[in-house]
TrEMBL record:
Keywords: DNA-binding, Transcription, Transcription regulation. Pfam families: HTH_1 (PF00126), LysR_substrate (PF03466). CDD domains: PBP2_CrgA_like. Belongs to the LysR transcriptional regulatory family. This is LysR substrate-binding domain-containing protein. PROSITE patterns: HTH_LYSR (PS50931). PANTHER family: HTH-TYPE TRANSCRIPTIONAL ACTIVATOR TTDR-RELATED (PTHR30537:SF5), HTH-TYPE TRANSCRIPTIONAL REGULATOR (PTHR30537). SUPFAM superfamilies: Periplasmic binding protein-like II, Winged helix' DNA-binding domain. It comes from Nannocystis punicea. InterPro entries: LysR-type_TF_proteobact-type, LysR_HTH_N, LysR_subst-bd, WH-like_DNA-bd_sf, WH_DNA-bd_sf. Residues 4-61 form the HTH lysR-type domain.
Length: 302
């Protein structure tokens, strides 16, 4: 009877699932070299070649396909069972993979994550900041923060609304002192703007009506951090999400213009992998984040 190492088998399944040694390494949180050694060891134990490797792709052999078909469901079931076992340690531990947009991560999560790891030193947080939509399953993400009008469907993730996000108008006190503060939406057209490249016409929803205009220069950019700095420098008016601008408002660096008018209202969603049985590291992080966001722009979290 052939004895098969379950760790090697899990690495083989991950490679076939992702069609990549690198992606399998990211999923399992292991070095790529460990994945390669695991596959070689499994092939030696089985006495057959399981994968064809080239510089650009990984292909499954006939024997590999047969092994995957028979064992992948068993490996997945075993991993789920182990994940759902009560943790023996009182403190959360292990690697926690979190994804968020670059701006939200820098403006909000950096401080929260720093305080979280200080409280739970046995947890290592692996932050994946990206403005594109990350494949949560392929990247083995534990917690995802998504900004959208409604929760993004994924049967393997539970979603919780943390609060609303309003995109509003801001300018520096120096700019408003120099050019005057707009008293209504009709006065916006005569002002200088920090606009976003390729951005749509700006729709402002206010008391009883909506107003649309197309912001124009003197600065056009494609980065929110740049826009924030340019607004603080007194270039003109611009739009920012409230979570990003409110610290500057509190510090007196920016002023909210036409505060009763908003645009592109959305919501912040926290998505956790694991369904009803969350690993301790995930549940601890979720509760830590919810508590941290009870004040400020997310005070309305439900």
């Amino acid at each position: 009877m052939t004895t098969v190492d379950l760790d090697r088998l899990a690495r083989f399944v991950a490679v076939v699932d992702t069609a990549s040694f690198s992606a399998a390494a990211r999923r399992l949180g292991l070095p790529k070299s460990s994945i390669s050694r695991g596959i070689v060891g499994l092939e030696q134990a089985m006495g057959v070649r399981l994968l064809h490797r080239t510089t650009r792709r990984v292909a499954v052999t006939t024997a590999g396909a047969a092994l995957y078909e028979r064992t992948a469901p068993l490996v997945a079931a075993l991993q789920r069972s182990l994940a759902e076992l009560p943790e023996r340690e009182e403190q959360p531990s292990g690697r926690l993979r979190v994804t968020a947009t670059v701006d939200f991560g820098a403006a909000v999560l950096a401080d929260i994550v720093a305080r979280f790891v200080a409280r739970y030193p046995s947890v290592e947080v692996d932050m994946r900041l990206a403005n594109n939509v990350v494949d949560l399953v392929a990247e083995s993400i534990d917690v995802a923060f998504r900004i959208a009008r409604r929760p993004l469907g994924d049967a393997s993730f539970t979603a919780r609304k943390l609060g609303t996000i309003d995109v509003q108008l801001y300018a520096s006190p120096a700019y408003l002192a120099r050019r005057g503060t707009p008293r209504n939406q009709r006065e916006l057209a005569g002002h200088a703007w920090v606009a976003y490249r390729g951005g749509p016409a700006l729709r402002l929803d206010g008391p009883g009506e909506a107003f649309v205009l197309k912001p124009s220069g003197p600065i056009v950019c494609d980065d929110m951090s740049f826009a924030r700095q340019a607004l603080r420098a007194g270039v003109g008016l611009g739009i920012l999400p409230n979570f990003y601008a409110e610290p500057d408002v509190a510090a007196g660096l920016l002023v909210r213009v036409l505060p009763r008018w908003t645009t592109q209202t959305g919501a912040l969603w926290l998505m956790c992998a694991g369904g009803k049985h969350l690993p301790r590291k995930v549940s601890a992080f979720r509760e830590f984040v919810i508590e941290a966001l009870r004040s400020g722009p997310f005070a309305a979290a439900g």
